[in-house]
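Methods — Computational structure assignment.
A single polypeptide chain was analysed. Its primary sequence is given first, followed by the predicted tertiary structure written as structure tokens.
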Amino acid sequence: MKIESIEGYDKRVNGTSLRGYINGDYSSLVEAFGDPLATGDDYKTDAEWILVLNDDVVVTIYNYKSGKNYLGANGLNVEDIDRWHVGGKTNEGLLLLDEYFEENSIRLGVDLDR
């Protein structure tokens, strides 16, 4: 699978919404995709990966309202977050990520938003 990381704003991200979750630790995400390219929005998110899978499927991976940006001293450090939101335009990106994790023995699980 081809995976491209996007830095900063990209219009392809417009229209994405929550599709599901990744269960796993920050270090496993860094191992799979490198350091997060975005440090969040300084409000509701602390770390974010923006990925394009197979040249056309946009996926965002981010924490939401669980970290220090939103909760201050009561928030989790990004290294301690173990449930990540996954955004996309369809569920295809989440399913592709699940396949990628399984094929590469990456210890991350995927849950569809219900």
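Note: The longest helix spans residues 92-103.
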